[in-house]
From TrEMBL:
Lineage: Eukaryota, Metazoa, Ecdysozoa, Arthropoda, Hexapoda
Originating species: Plutella xylostella
Cross-referenced InterPro entries: Znf_C2H2_sf, Znf_C2H2_type
SUPFAM superfamilies per UniProt: beta-beta-alpha zinc fingers (SSF57667)
Pfam families, sorted: zf-C2H2 (PF00096), zf-C2H2_6 (PF13912)
Protein name (record): C2H2-type domain-containing protein
Length: 362
């Protein structure tokens, strides 16, 4: 086997290294570069013209940009932004017409078989897609509901830059910077309109655009209607255009959810039984911070909810509401065996335990 050819990193910048690798692989294979998919189609990487199908994109790229110098084009990008989406359908080497399994094999093939010099120590910046199957990850075969979801998912496979705060990986340093600024950089960013304070500028901007400017960034692909929220557009597609609703199915209990976040929350709470929020006073644990706040009323809450009849006070409004059933004689909890009715469920449970022990009441 031929020895690998590697350009010494002592005489090359990171930007130039990525440009050499990307241009070598694009120029010597049949991959088709493109920009992120939009509602209008697949934008050409070089001129941004949107093409409706893979064949149209390939034909346009090969005819209109066959003489383009890929290296010179890539030098327009800043070093933190260099990343190229490519279609790898029927991947082949242009030099010998060999079929290649994936981009990693292409890199080895060009370097070892055809002696193409490449910067092997640098991470890859070509991200593989098959536009005929654009909702399937070409690395792990995971399936997704939108092209944007597949594209974001690729950060898991190209962890070139990792967030020190939460461990999330990103393809480029720029994407990592955006993540840190949006999620982890603390601060007080008040909305100029309503005064609501946000922990990051990005969250404040999102709020201002959606709530006050009513900026409708999500356009329906079937008509001209626009929406401020992604999920509002999805409801519109289902209700107006008859599209199949997006469902995320639990692989444990077969429950379905309309949002991936809700499925994740369900798995953690109902199946993994996560209880990561602990009371420092009594050791009580629960799933959410909200549940813990409600619990803490037991320890520090003032009894501000007073009964108008007997003046007994409670820390929780819900507890006062239950108490009021005593005064209204609301006996809604009825024993199924003897018909005796009780105001509180706990009283019914005690009755069954004493008088009807054969029943197993949860």
């Amino acid at each position: 086997m031929a020895a690998k050819l590697d350009i010494s990193s002592n005489y090359i910048t990171e930007k130039r290294a990525h440009i050499i690798n990307i241009s070598t692989m694009i120029e010597n294979s049949n991959v088709t570069p493109f920009r992120s998919k939009t509602t209008h189609g697949y934008p050409c990487f070089y001129c941004r013209k949107a093409l409706g199908t893979l064949e149209e994109l390939k034909s346009h790229t090969n005819q209109d940009h066959k003489s383009i110098d890929v290296k010179k084009f890539l030098y327009k990008y800043g070093p933190e932004n260099i990343v190229v989406n490519v279609d790898v359908t029927d991947l082949k080497c242009k030099i010998c017409d060999s079929k290649i399994a994936n981009l990693s094999e292409l890199k080895k093939h060009l370097n070892q078989t055809h002696k193409k010099q490449m910067c092997l120590k640098y991470t890859d910046r070509l991200v593989p897609f098959k536009l005929e199957k654009d909702l399937v990850c070409q690395i792990c075969d995971g399936t997704f509901q939108t092209f944007g979801a597949v594209e974001r998912h690729m950060n898991l496979h190209f962890r070139n830059y990792v967030c020190k705060e939460c461990g999330t990986g990103f393809i480029t340093k720029y994407r990592l910077k955006v993540h840190v600024k949006s999620i982890h950089v603390g601060g007080n960013y008040p909305c100029e309109v309503c005064g609501k304070v946000f922990p990051s500028y990005q969250k404040k901007k999102t709020h201002t655009d959606a709530v006050h400017k009513l900026f409708k960034r999500f356009k329906c692909p079937k008509c001209s209607v626009r929406f401020t929220e992604y999920f509002a557009r999805q409801r519109h597609l289902v209700e107006v255009h008859g599209a199949a609703p997006i469902k995320y199915k639990c692989n444990v209990c077969d429950r379905e959810f309309d949002r991936k976040y809700n499925l994740s929350r369900h798995l953690k709470k109902d199946h993994l039984k996560e209880k990561n929020n602990e009371c420092e006073t009594c050791g009580y644990t629960c799933f959410t911070v909200t549940e813990l706040k409600v619990h803490m009323i037991k320890h520090v809450g003032e009894r501000t909810h007073e009964c108008d009849v007997c003046k007994k006070a409670y820390a929780r409004k819900k507890t006062l509401k239950e108490h009021m059933k005593i005064h209204t004689n609301d006996r809604r909890h009825v024993c199924a065996v003897c018909g005796q009715a009780f105001i509180q469920k706990c009283s019914l449970k005690g009755h069954i335990k004493t008088h009807h022990p054969e029943l197993n009441m949860e």
